[in-house]
Amino acid sequence: MGVVHAAFEGMQIFVGGVGTAIRGQVAALPRVQRELRHHGVDLVPHFIEIAYLPTHPHYDEKSFARHRELVAETGGTFSVVPSGTTGLAADSIWGDAGLGEPRNWQIASAALAGRLIDLAARHDQLVAYCHEPVFAFAPLHASLQCEAAGVDLTAVYVSHATAYAHEMPLPNPDRLMAESLPVHWAKVTPRVRLGAISRHMSDHLIREYGARAETFVPTGNGVDTTDHWYRQRSRAELTGLLTRHGVPVDRDLLVTFGRGVPYKRHDMLIRAAAEIRGSAHPVVMSDPDLPELRHLAERLQVDATLITSFDRELMAALLQWERTRALTLSARDEPWGMIPMEARLLARETGALLIAADSGGFTEQIDQGVDGFLHVPDDPSDLARVIDRVLGLTESEQRSVRRRGAERVLNEESWPKKIIESLRAVVPEIDAAADAVLDALT
Hints:
The protein has helices at 18-37, 61-73, 102-120, 138-149, 163-166, 173-185, 199-209, 235-244, 267-276, 291-300, 312-320, 339-346, 360-364, 380-391, 395-412, 415-423, 428-441; strands at residues 2-7, 44-50, 77-81, 126-131, 153-158, 192-196, 216-218, 253-259, 281-287, 305-308, 324-329, 353-357, 373-375. By secondary structure, the chain is α/β, with parallel strands linked by helices. 45% of the residues lie in helices and 16% in strands.
């Protein structure tokens, strides 16, 4: 059987979010392949993206070459489809400058649908995960041609963040229509399903888009627990990294990460820091730059370190540093969020404990007071209260939270487990072997 992941990021351009999910699956697939072969299932992966020029600001030739090689080693393929652009960021008046207007998505989706039909002809069965609105039209086009082409194909539309999260209160009606199409087409044919990355997103699609619960399959999000990035760095390595970026190593730190967009609510840490006055030093790491954060820190007279970067080594160093007391994530209605999982593995021995807004996918990832902490969304005073609680924990209590957080990721959120759980929902042969495969993988 073939498995396709069609996405707008991950291989050619190196960014977080969906890109991290794609790279994690690439790394995990060889282990999944080996175990499935013991049960008579030969899984062949195919990765498809919209085409990018090397001059794209996030193009990463080194990462691209490494992941392309990993895909080739599995016997899989990588290919690209057009998106109505020259391979650079598209223009859009509605907040999605990277993907452009729905016309671009129609072009990419039609090209993808043709590619899916061709790939399905090579396999007994093909499962295609179509990530995000750039491929929202592909499940319709592909499913309509299955009978004529004589292929067995299931298209799973995976929404990682619908328009409500990024474009309200000024919605793009064309985007809302595009994102609604696969939701309703899944009611028409079993060849189209919806991917559930979290209960929050599934509930949102049911409530706001009219999805039906029975059309969902779990897709989840996970981490590649074998990634070298999760290694424990030496104290000298950590202090060197932090010092080079101007981070004080003689003070307790509070850190937050994420894209430099307002809905991530990086301002919450600065506002909370103003209330705990000097108990710990706030560090905000975001890209692109948000000048309003600097102005806010100046107005509130908060001594903060503001870093404009997507440096993963710096992120790891901040999380593992012995004097980093907490990572705060304050976005409201985050669809799921990869950073909580990454942070728990990186800080499994020393460093930051997790504090997140009690909202969206974050709520599902935290057992309050056991493996992390939740704060009232949009309430800096409550965040300050939770920070005070974390600062007051004993070393034994801190170790317990770290251990439970890391165990949760290792036991529940590894990519091999997520891949099998998703495929078993649509492939009976994998469902029959899933329990044995999962036992072997863990």
